[in-house]
Amino acid sequence: MNPMETVQQKLARLAKWKLHRFYLKYPRIARYLPPTALLTPETLDRFLRLYKVVYIKASTVHTGKGIIKAWKADNGYKFVIVRGEIRHATSAHDLYRRIHNMYPQRSFIVQKAIDLSKLNGRDFDIRVMMMRDGERKWNYAGMVVKVTGPGSVVSNVRRGGGYVTTVEHAIRRSLHCSTQQVRNIKKELIQLSRNIMQASEQYPFFSFQCGLDLAVDRKGRVWVIEVNLHNPSHGLFNKLNDKTFFRRIGRLYSSYRRKHKRII
Fold first, then answer.
1. Pfam families annotated for this entry (predicted)?
2. Which of 26, 157, 174, 179 has a CA-to-CA distance to 101 between 20 and 30 Å?
3. 36 Cβ partners below 8 Å, 6+ apart?
4. pLDDT for 1 beyond 60
5. Looking at the domain assignment, is residue 89 inside a domain?
6. Same domain, 23 and 45
7. Contact, 53 vs 69, CB < 8 A?
């Protein structure tokens, strides 16, 4: 890696489309990835015809900013940006034109919308935190559920007005799971996270902490929503009543930073 690279050049490697193509190379991860493509008029039309509901995400923008949910309607298509009003487009090409006019300098991906599990009628996903320790080994640090806010299409708590809760509570309530089934899902989430971090060692971006946004659909299947290799929020875990995960994240962060200066 070029030591003269700027931070901006390094962060450019975290584009969603680049990461998606990278993780597709690993069979243990690829089966968890939703169908995804670079946004063009043709891919948008094809995805809407195939999947009826899609998410459109800026490839280099994170924290839920500008995410669009679009779906088939009786007389065209409807779409929402983050948590705004429902808008109408007459066709897939009209929808593409509107997005391009709003954000002319951005590249986007289009992704099949997963039929997510719901808690009290709201979608949720799961943030799994992975941290390097002082020996630079990856450790599972904790997981928390992010529930979407009213009318929001993103789970980012600050941007979407949602809230956090425990994985046990959310999965048990949404899927009516037994305690053992909840344990099995959590085990799968953690193993998937470990597989992603192992693969990420080969990606041209150094990370010492990662927030993985995973999800469980209504049938109990696990999916990868996004891999955040840079500067994931610790504060989400402080919102839980039980501070066990938050304290563990702090210990691992301190353990790494005491011995290592590199953060990117």
1. ATPgrasp_YheCD
2. 157
3. 17, 20, 109, 110, 111, 112
4. no
5. yes
6. no
7. yes
Are residues 108 and 119 part of one domain? no
- 162, 108: one domain: no
Distances (CA, A) of 108 to 59, 73, 154, 162: 5, 22, 16, 24
Query: What percentage of the chain has pLDDT greater than the value 90?
Result: 88
User: Are 83 and 128 contained in the same domain?
Assistant: no
Question: Do 87 and 144 reside in the same domain of the chain?
Answer: no
pLDDT tens string 70-111: 999 999 999 999 887 899 999 999 999 999 999 998 999 999
Question: How do residues 232-242 score in pLDDT, each as one tens digit?
Answer: 999 999 999 99
Strands 122-132 and 222-228: what pairing? unpaired
User: pTM (2 decimals)?
Assistant: 0.95
The phi and psi torsions of 207 (rounded to 5 degrees) equal -135, 140
Q: Residue 57 burial by CB count (10 A; 0-12/13-18/19+): exposed, middle or buried?
A: buried
183 shares a domain with 246: yes
* 214 phi and psi angles, rounded to 5 deg: -115, 170
Query: How many domains does the chain divide into?
Result: 2
Sequence-ordered list of residues with C-beta below 8 angstroms from that of 39, at least 6 positions apart, any chain = 56, 96, 99, 107, 108, 109, 110
Looking at residue 75, its amino acid is N
The residue range of the domain holding 99 is 36-112
